[in-house]
Amino acid sequence: MTEKEQIRVVVSGPRGRMGSETIRMIAQSPDLDLVAAIDHGHDGARIEDLLGITGLSGQVYTEIDACFSQEDVDVLIDFTNPEAGKRNLQKAIDYGVRPVIGTSGFSNEEVESYKQQMDEKKLGGIIAPNFAIGAVLVMKFSQMAAKYFPDAEIIELHHDKKKDAPSGTAIKTAELMAKSRQPKKQGAEDEKETLVGARGADFDGMRIHSVRLPGLIAHQEVLFGGKGELLTLRHDSMDRASFMTGVHYAAKTVMDLDTLVYGLENILD
Ligand SMILES: NC(=O)c1ccc[n+]([C@@H]2O[C@H](COP(=O)([O-])OP(=O)(O)OC[C@H]3O[C@@H](n4cnc5c(N)ncnc54)[C@H](O)[C@@H]3O)[C@@H](O)[C@H]2O)c1
Ligand SMILES: O=C(O)C1=N[C@H](C(=O)O)CCC1
């Protein structure tokens, strides 16, 4: 593959847990070329100096406008926080750069408004709450199971540095389940919480519980209860490498899309 055929990628959030893992993945991928990184400090630094990884090209920008106007960029991969992620996504659209957004915290209304802009520009991109293939399969299996088991509870478990709750994955799972599940308020009609929050968050009558503990990375269990039976679907990300197959696949696939896709499941074969 010649250099010209490489996909030119910018990573936003390079010093973070996911951003740094993404940069390591790009460094090992001959079809991807890291052209720059967006950080909120270290303007002008070499990425390899910032991360202490040798053999990386590209510099750090604190201003995304400067980066997109000075560099030739195909794809922006963003793992930051909801505020920065939304700002960066909008800039990507403005400059015609294809966004691959892993940052969680996007509402359906926001996704729809970005999609409309991208449809007008015929620009490809993806927002995916979870890039781990196993997590995406649990979402799909949960959607199948919810048709037969309307009584379901989601327990998502993450590391204690996670800022948002519930996780984007849990919300997306509940949204998919709501497509096949008869709406139902679970639990006893007259149940009362004697401690606020004991029954978790309410999504369409389903409950979502968020666990935050050191030692965890990203895990989710979906429990379905029926007459005399319990079905449990569980996925564990034991390492952030688990997300990289999906991130790499998304960075390649957005090159052939002309719309914004929400969820990795929508671009998997
Ligand atoms: N889609 C997925 O598969 C997936 C997987 C893991 C995490 N996530 C999500 O990705 C996001 C990041 O997670 P993390 O664990 O890497 O968090 P993190 O806190 O380790 O990293 C976030 C990084 O973004 C940087 N940052 C903040 N503002 C910035 C800005 N304006 N410009 C550039 N960089 C900025 C921070 O300095 C930090 O280094 C979260 O929203 C998380 O929920 C998604
Ligand atoms: O580490 C995180 O933060 C994660 N967030 C995603 C979410 O909010 O669903 C999932 C993967 C890990």
TrEMBL record:
Tell where it localizes.
Answer: Cytoplasm
Work out whether the entry's keyword set contains Cytoplasm.
Answer: yes
Q: Which UniProt keywords apply?
A: Amino-acid biosynthesis, Cytoplasm, Diaminopimelate biosynthesis, Lysine biosynthesis, NAD, NADP, Oxidoreductase
List this protein's GO terms for biological process.
diaminopimelate biosynthetic process; lysine biosynthetic process via diaminopimelate
**Top enzyme class:** oxidoreductase
Q: What is its main location?
A: cytoplasm
Per the UniProt entry, the Enzyme Commission number(s) are: 1.17.1.8
Q: Which reaction does it catalyse?
A: (S)-2,3,4,5-tetrahydrodipicolinate + NADP(+) + H2O = (2S,4S)-4-hydroxy-2,3,4,5-tetrahydrodipicolinate + NADPH + H(+); (S)-2,3,4,5-tetrahydrodipicolinate + NAD(+) + H2O = (2S,4S)-4-hydroxy-2,3,4,5-tetrahydrodipicolinate + NADH + H(+)
Q: Where does (S)-2,3,4,5-tetrahydrodipicolinate bind?
A: 159, 168-169
Which residue range or ranges hold the Dihydrodipicolinate reductase N-terminal domain? 7-131
Active-site annotation = 158, 162
Q: Does the keyword Cell division apply?
A: no
Q: Where is the Dihydrodipicolinate reductase C-terminal domain?
A: 134-268
GO molecular function terms here? 4-hydroxy-tetrahydrodipicolinate reductase; NAD binding; NADP binding; oxidoreductase activity, acting on CH or CH2 groups, NAD or NADP as acceptor
InterPro entries xrefs: DapB_C (IPR022663), DapB_N (IPR000846), DapB_N_CS (IPR022664), DHDPR_bac (IPR023940), NAD(P)-bd_dom_sf (IPR036291)
Database matches in HAMAP family: DapB
Q: How does it assemble?
A: Homotetramer.
The record, for NCBIfam families, names: dapB (TIGR00036)
How is this protein named in the record?
Answer: 4-hydroxy-tetrahydrodipicolinate reductase
The record's gene field reads dapB
